[in-house]
Amino acid sequence: METGEEFGPWLARQLKLAGKTQAELAEELQLTRAAVSAWITGRSTPRPTVMSDIAKALGTDVGTVHTRTTDTQAGLPTTWYHRPGYPDGGRDLGNAAAFAFDADVQVLARETCQNSLDERLTANGRPVRVRYTLHELTGESLEAFREAILWNDLFPHYSAVSEGAGSQKVGRVVDAGVRDMYEKGRLVLLRVDDYNASGLIGDDYADGKFAAVVRRQLESLKSSHGAGGSYGLGKATLWATSALGLVLINSTLSVPHEGRTERRVIGRLELPWREVDGRPYAGPAWFGRPDPDLQGAQVARSWWADEETVAGLYLTREIDEPGTSFLIVGAHDVASLDEKSSDIDDEALADDGDEDTRDIRRMHHRLVEALGRDFWAAMTGGGSRLPLLEVSVRSLRNGEVVVEEEQVDPSDRQPSRTRALRAHYEGTTVDRLTEAGHVAARSVPLKLPLSGGARGTFGVHQAVLLVTDGVDKDGDKNQVHSLRGNRMTVKEAGVPNLPLGTNPFQAVLLVGEAAGEAAPFAKEAEEFLRAAEPPEHDRWGQTEELSLRWSPSAYRRINMLTTEVNSAVKELVARPKRSAGEGGEALRKALTVKTRPKPKAPSGPVVPVLDRLDATIGDGGEWLIAAEVSIPRGDEVTPMVPVVQLDVRSGGRPKLEWAELVAVEGCEVGNGVLRFTPGARRAKFRGSTDVTSHPVRTSLTRLVVELRAGKGE
Question: What global pTM score does this model have?
């Protein structure tokens, strides 16, 4: 027989729920108060013959008393608690955190899957498994669900919101959601289940994951410093995706609370300020058991539900592994109207032929697309490295399958990048790309700044760059996907100024713990880049946290990393020059190709032109410059003098002195003059300025570099 909580704590809670004292129970059982106290404190347990008397006193069956896997139904029933209006008359017309995101299932997938990755139980080495279920309810199924969530108690609040919807954004969304349910006779549920995760552990009110998600805003309590989230905003996407502002939660805990782990249930409703029957309400409401420990038992807290209750709320979990199920009631996907994918048959998507933000087939497709795009790396394993994540999506209507469960396959969604990452894990990368299917690897430095605004470098973290040839199925070609510890794609960017004729490629940048936990300064790189991510976690750059913890110029270290990455990619994908006798000689002799005569080179001197310039500020405040020069065809190339100046609004530009000027390719440097290699069409040089020649602090200036003709010795 399954047994749950220890008898003493269980009995104490049932007495609170039933409003009984220990003395009153002892009197009903015709026992001493000391005997009941001994049960509560765990010094003894009642005899089996007494169990039936306890069940009768609590208004339940003897099986419930023996197993103690759920609370009795006596006493305080589940109900909705609506937060009263503020005494000072203040009004919240919606949860501001929800406005950080659109009503977009692809954003929801990114935020919820990231949260599940962050809460993965790592001790067993297994991946976290996440399942998305779209479930459309109609007819009797819809009526039964509304009864389970006490819809009649909620309806006056929704009506009050609808009355004021004309002047309030959240009210208009809610009003549209209610009208859709009644006019079309349907309700879309979107459930997100994760397994092998920590679950919503902790007290209902005190610090912990439960309170951070259910009770509080802008609080992030992640299990790892390599976690993706940091703002506490991601959970708001759950409520933003609900047109009714309603989310129900069922959590299986990895750490017991009140001696229990299974079926910890609560609901949270997000509505704007409203007035019902003359009473003002502030906004949020909670669905749960009234808390007997609070005065008047008016505040609802989580409760340990029975299997029948969670089934009626569509919250039944597949297995008893730790994790959480979030049920978004009235899910909609407004962002789906902004795009149409050629992979979707529009006629098959909407039963009535209209574009529909609640169409479960379109939402299903967009979920799969987003998960494959953003989490392909977390789903990829190789060598001794196991995947961190497994994801699937399914769609139902009244319990019947509409779209079969689809396991997201990273090698199908991102074939080239998956191949690259797997080769890295298996140790089969190469130094150069010489054959199709090869994966080239290169280390690129991330110089981590000192915190607190101090100048200098704390340490150099070596990120890992992987480059391989691309295919059409990868999507946009010549892209670099950057990711860190939890292996969610943070940044997607193209590589600029690629040479003409470059073969399509895909690249992956592994930074922080994604480069390997043993990589130098991996933990510090995680912390630095996490602070450089905005709430959307879709790039690295200037943020307020980065400025406060490091310095306003700390983001330039990320720019330097990007420059290093782009340079390394160009070097790896450059085509090697063919030798004169290489390949196809017989075919070339057999073909006659008419060609235009080569233009004659100018007889006089030609002047090179500065074609490209990259400049960053070094640790000592100097300008670090890398330049590329285009050289016209000609018999004589004029030597050039690089001149570096500060840009000013009026007057002459102050000239800076070179501390170092070095030839890189296609030229030589002597006495500050560039002399170009005969026949070269391009040249490169680099240099750094002399800080003592700077009239003002470097961070406050803009730079101008010119090439001036000169023979000078």
Answer: 0.71
